[in-house]
Each structure stands twice: as C-alpha cells, then as structure tokens.
Amino acid sequence: PSGDYCEYRTAAADYVGCEGPQVIPTAGGLAAIRLAVATTVRPGETAVVPYPSFGEYAREVRLQGGVPEFVPWEEVPRTDPAGHALVVVCNPNNPTGGAYDPGRLRAYADRCREAGTPLLADEAFLGFTDEPSLAGHDGAVVARSLTKLFGLPGLRAGFAVATGEHRDRLDTARQAWGLGTPAACVGVHCMRQEGFVPETRERVTRERERMRGRLAARFDVHPSEAPFLLLDVGTSGAVDDLRGAVREHDIAVRDARTFRGLDRHVRVAVRRPRENDRLLDALDV
User: Fold this and answer.
1) Same domain, yes or no: 147 and 37
2) DSSP H or E run through 38
3) 49 and 158 fall within a common domain
4) Of 16, 74, 236, 251, which sits 20 to 30 A from 175 (CA to CA)?
5) pTM (two decimals)
6) What is the DSSP string of 143-198?
C-alpha cells in the first residue's frame, strides 16, 4: 500500500470534518486507541478510564506500565485532568449506550488541553448519532472505527485524528503500511457513501426505540444512542437464565457481567426488524 494513504486521509477528513493531514490511518479503531495510549502513557503514570466501558482502555494503559484510574463513565467530564497522562472517554459509551452532551464534552476537552493532558475520545459508535465529532479539536485525540457503522468486521479499517504535537507523535509511531490496500480501498468507498449514514442512523434509531418500548415492559433499559441496549435483568442468575432461554432460539446476547461494575446485565444488539422481532418474541415481551 501507499505509505501516505492520501485518498484514505482525504475521505476520512471529509467524513468527520477535519483536515487531511490530521488523519492517522490505522488497522481498525483499536489500533488507533493503542497508538494513542502508547504515545502518551509512561510507566507509573495514571490514566483516567471510564467504567463500565470497553475493557481494552485499561489493558492498553497497563501494557505501557501505566495505572488506570477508573471513574464512572458519566462522571469523567467532572474529573480534574491535571496530573494524569491521559483521559479516556467513549462516546457513545459501550456498553451503556449513553452519549455526552456535546458542549460539555468540548469544554472538558479544552480543560484537558489547558492541563496538558490529552483527551482520547473513542468514537466507534458516534456515526449512529447526530452528535458532532471532536475530530480536529486541539488537545483531543479521536479514534474512529469503520467496523461498526459500515459492518466491516475482520477488515480492520479505522483512523485517529489529532492536531499539533499529538498528531506528529502518532504519525511517527504508527506502523508503516499498517493499513492494508483492500481495507483502505473499501474504507474510502464506505466513507464516501453520503446517503448510507443518515439512512442507517434513522433505521437504527427507529428500531432501537421500538425495541426499548417492548423491552421496558420486563427489564430496566438504559437510555442509549448506540446500536445496542443495556438491560438490567435483576440478578446474576437471571443473566444465565436469559442467555439460556434465547439460545434455544439460536439467539446470542452479550453477557455484560464482563464489564467492570455490571453484575446483572446483558447487552442486546439492534439489528434488522425481523431479527429484532425474533429476539423480542424469545424474551416474551
């Protein structure tokens, strides 16, 4: 592949609304997260990590010899960033599905910049919302994945966006030819499908709200802006019972007990209407 990925950078910049040179191509969103952590966290330093959230944040911090400081995901913008090597947010958050207020998040990004602490924003599911990206915001490092919105599991296409010194460090540290030619070509094609994103966003939102209404009759359903819903099923044992019940219908749901702070939850995906109906029927809601 071409080492500069000019076409991919341009497509990604147009997609999120930043400048082409600010885009750092990576083999998926996790590679962007790994790159951001590796270039900011040193042994013994702390990083603010949200919970319950994607477990790889803490893992990547520990791989660098750092110490994750866990904060409830919705409380992160109230945390003092001073003294930390990095602050991480997931927007919308996985697995809860909640999103941050855009103005509040930008104000916190400014606060992080003033403190000299990079803010890493994982926006893997942001394309499913109408919320603006932090891409191009000074002091923020954005990680984007094409896997979720465009349905490209296994292809591994994503990118980071950063400015100034953060951008330079990421670009210097990124793996040469880390993004394969097939992934780059498919990524460019997907990011240029202007009608696909709003259509998908509308469809997922409509189905999510329909599912929420049905599921709320039996479970405590967390508010979500993402293509999934987090359900509180009451007890840890009920998680096993529910998973076993839907498995009899050849349906799998995510055991959310693997997320820090959750011990009685499952996460269900928002899929096509017919598939969603199968799940709802299996859950008897």
Assistant:
1) yes
2) helix 29-38
3) yes
4) 16
5) 0.95
6) EEESHHHHT-TTT--EEEE--HHHHHHHHHHSPTT-S-HHHHHHHHHHHT-TTHHH
